[in-house]
Amino acid sequence: MAGATVDTATLEPVGGPADRPPEQATDPVDWIRKNLFNNWFNSLLTVVFSLLIAYVAFRAVRFVFVTARWEIIEVNLTNFMVGRFPREELLRPWIAIYIAALVGGTGVGLAAREGPRLGATGAAMRYFPGIALVVVFLAFARTFTPLLLTAGSFAVMLVGRWVGLRALPEKSRKWMPWLYAATVVAVFLAFAGFGGVGWDRWGGLLLTLFLAVGGIMLSFPIGVLLALGRRSTFPVVRSVCVGYIELIRGVPLITLLFMGSLALGFFFPPNFPRPGLVVRALIAMVLFTAAYVAEIVRGGLQGVPRGQTEAGLAVGLSPLKITYLIVLPQALRNVIPALVGQFISLFKDTSLVFIIGLLDLLGVAQTINSQPRFAGQGLQAETLLFASFVYWAFCYTMSRASQRLEKRLGVGER
Amino acid sequence: MAGALGLWWLIGGLGLLTGFLRDPRAGRPLERAIETIAGTSDGLTGLVLILVGVWALVVGGGLLRRQSWARVAAIATFAAVALPSLAMAGGNLFRLFFDVFNIGPERAPGAFAFAPPLARAALEGLVVVALLTGESRRDFARAGEARQAEVPGALAPPVWRDLQVLRVAGQVVFAVLVIGFLWYLYNNLFTNLRTSGLPTGFDYLNRPAGVDIRDSPFRPSQPVRDAIVVGFVNTIRVSVVGIALATLIGVLIGIARLSSNWLVRKFAAFYVESLRNIPVLVIIIFFYVAVVLKLPPIQEALETLGLMVFSNRGLAVPWGEAAGAVRAFLGFIGGGLALAVIVGLWRTRRFDETGQPHHRVLWGTAILVVVVVASYVALGRPVELTIPTRDGRLVEGGITLGPEYAALLIGLVLYTASHIAEIVRGSILAVPKGQFEAAQALALTGFQRMRFVILPQALRIMVPPLANQYLNLTKNSSLAVAVGYFELTRITGQIIANGNPAPQSIAILMAAYLLLSLTISFFANVVNRRLSLESP
User: What is residue A265's three-state secondary structure?
Assistant: First the structure.
């Protein structure tokens, strides 16, 4: 039906409407006539959709600003953030945020040395979901401390950006992967080290992020090995890898989580100390994600021209060296955007651990409705919308960052 | 490589030795058979077996480079003699690992006693088949012969640097490690099930399920097996309906994203960008607790347009109700479809032969409509459309979708539609611009452009990712476990909660999903092959 309305003006092979250069300054009436009322069918659509959008917007605005009872979020903001993390240890998350802000700022600064600058407004436009997220978090905070600490972390990030942009020598770039790895360890230690809090007491957004980041990092090496195995010339190795990948990709994540929570203990030796539920969930997610990472990496491996391998053979490198010196670096560079996509998908999938009884972001959103103060009042819409917003802001920011990365790496342009 | 191999053998031998020395049990059939082959029965068995393995590898490797019958014989000898011992070594290696690190200090007796002979047979079969059929190996062998022909008198490399031998050895090592690990897991599983008094087989499937399934004639006294079947059918029910609706909405939104109407375009973009970035589980739960359950109670149900009754007991929509010879009617519909297809094919052939306009869609539709209407009248209105009406606390007529089913369906459909919309948009944009221009140059109308030029090409790009989304929707239907619709995962969860063994139940669950996935993949592949340009 609406197929007839597709016209060639909008069908450009690249980008799509959002990425086109800004419209030439034209008469607004002209613009409206061209974009909303250019034929009878479009006029009808415009009227219908205006009414629909107006109604939805009215209901949404009225809910958000009038009828919703947001105090359930205000009271439970800390629960949303860290779950049952001991309140006297709350300094630890902030230390972690500061470390991450410093290193992240440095990385951004280094990256900003080349390529077109976005500028402050450009960056704000691009990362508006993330900024909106911080604003919403702070709006729900009932004290001034988080505001001050957040402002401090932004300052630290700007310092890091300056360091990355101006202070660091150019050759420091090659140390950045190590710095990132060290940062992950440092952030982890900030939570768990020095008499810290074990992950069985983590919850909320912290648990969600832990499962997503831990899941992708642990599944990456396994996925690379599986991808190499799948392209191996050894029939035994290949068949085992194909079997594993296809088995995992054919079943839903929740069955693996069930396996982790209900059946994993059976596979350990008798009297083996059973790992906690968080670890078992993480194992299930790593096993699951590894198969998907393997398929992504395989795509990257297939994209490396055969001549590269042959060149390696010609200079007398061993197959192992050809793989990790020539093929893998090119393949991995090509699959970074797809890996970010997988990370987004994993981030969304962490919500499933709520089903096996962990209190992640969704788990907190659901369980706080049974607190004595809010029980039976039907505030699920508020809590679930808040959780949805947090998920959305993270995923949307990451997917925009990934698009930018894709452009910068020039994937698919060679 | 050779060094690693030697090290592995050393460790494996140690593992084997310690395994035998530490284990009080002896005299199981397979071990005894190996001991007979090796000619010993004391603690030195492991060492002897390792030596036999090395010997088989060296001799086999030497033979490999000569003649094919000898190669086969060598592999067979090797498989028969050395592999069982290597597999045992592999299994023991993992045990040794745990022993060394003192995990699991008291192993229950009989950890290895239940290892099925099948595992061993499978291992040997796998390795032998792999060795005999390996393409690459044959290539290497051919290259080796060519090399020897070119350079007369060239020295063959020593065994430990011979690529062929190394390749075989590497695969054997890998297979042994994998099988040994699986074997180890299997034994742990078996022992653990035994010690916790759970059944180790699948006999529990015949026990009464004790699961109460709403909206189903299933009784709790029926066996577990039947409960699983009910769940499977419910999974298919939600998947099929979900796939149809998600495709419809997704295609509409995808086309709307390309509309020349600014408002429509932005609305579609908003829909896609918001729903795509929220976990589907959150969407499903939201529709369950914050939409469907928040509907008014049945006494004050919303009666939309006089056609539907919405309440927190479920959504009632109009539906056909059987009022006579439904089967005959369905048979007529099927026959009409077949006839329409046949006529369509005939028209296509006429078109190919004579060049007359085929109008096959017109012909086919006309025939189908005629058959359906005629049989409908002839059978005396076998199906009647009933409209749900509320009568006090009861809803009569139509079909009522339970709140769980409705929430699950809405959540899955809206989420998957956002992904399908992106696929549709991307596929249409991926058709080269020159195609549009060529169609315009031929003075095709807008509809003709889409129907005959753009969509056929876009469809070709669309099929694989679309099939992927169908797979995802089917797999995501397992999230019903969070809202309580009785599909496969939910029922399996209840079965496990009723004291049935988790590992077997989850294995069945995974197998069922695998079956569904493979079925969808199969059909997707068929369609893809039909549409692809170069048929294989």
Answer: helix
